[in-house]
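Per reviewer request, we include the raw input and output of the structure prediction for the construct analysed in the revised manuscript.
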Amino acid sequence: MAPESDLSGADRFAGLRRQMVDQQIRRRGVDDPRILQAMTTVPRHEFVPPELAEAAYQDRPLPIGEGQTISQPYIVARMADLANIEAADQVLEIGAGCGYAAAVLGELAQEVVTVEIRPNLAESARNTLDRLGYSNVKVVTGSVDEVDSERRFGAVLAAAAASKIPDTLEDRLADGGRLVLPVGSRFAQHLWTVDRQGDELVRRRHEAVAFVPLV
């Protein structure tokens, strides 16, 4: 094996991704092979500012501008795991940020629509996803209201915390679909899931988290 200094940047980052998956994700109970493969594949360092590339695979969120962050890798994997995404699913994400989570979801689903209210972040995410070849991920600038109101999704995920579960997101679920989002105040939040079975909605609370507020 070549010494660290002889490794190309691509090989080094690939090694850091594998280490991230083994130490941060698999050890914490996310063991779905499709999610582990997605997290191993998506180059997280491409979604952060260049000066933070060396920190991209650390176990923490990182700033991406405009007061927003790229989520901790484990949280991205955990939310994908809770969403129970099938290969044929269409997925809606609220809060594209830099586009990293949408890329992970794009490895799992047939199509991803991700919305971002901040135009500069939306444009940056769109450019990065296009450059990396994620043709099944569409970035929409604006709120969820910009997405066809008649369209229903197999999974809906929100990357920002709501004070309560929004009816508008539950309404976006197809039969058998699942919503995953943080709910609570700025200082006390938990992940919640909502499963739709026909007209019935089953809501469950999961672990504590910390997200920026949903706007």
